[in-house]
Hints:
Elements: H1 3-11, H2 14-26, H3 32-36, E1 40-41, E2 45-48, E3 65-68, H4 70-76, H5 84-97, E4 98-99
Antiparallel strand pairs: 1-4, 2-3
Amino acid sequence: xxxxxxxxxxxxxxxxxxxxxxxxxxxxxxxxxxxxxxxxxxxxxxxxxxxxxxxxxxxxxxxxxxxxxxxxxxxxxxxxxxxxxxxxxxxxxxxxxxxxxxxxxxxxx
Length: 109
C-alpha cells in the first residue's frame, strides 16, 4: 500500500465516519476556533489537532478532534490550494454562517 493510500483508506473508513460524527455532535456543529474568539459560526469540518501524519495512533481519539470552519481549516492547512471560484463560494457561505452577538446597549442590570 502506498504511503498516501493509507490516509485515503482511513478517511473512507466506518471508524473515521463515526469518530467524525461524534466530534461534530459534541461540538454542536460549531467552529471551536471561532468560539475561542467569541464568534458563533457553524462548521462541518473535523480537524486533527495533532495531524495523523505526525501520530497515526491519535487518528480516532476524540480529544484530538475538533470541529472547525472551512476558513480555519484552510489556515491550518495552507498547503492545500484553492481556486478563485472556491474563494467566492466560501465568502458567500461565511457571510451566511457568522453570528456575532454584541451587548444590548438598552439592557441594564
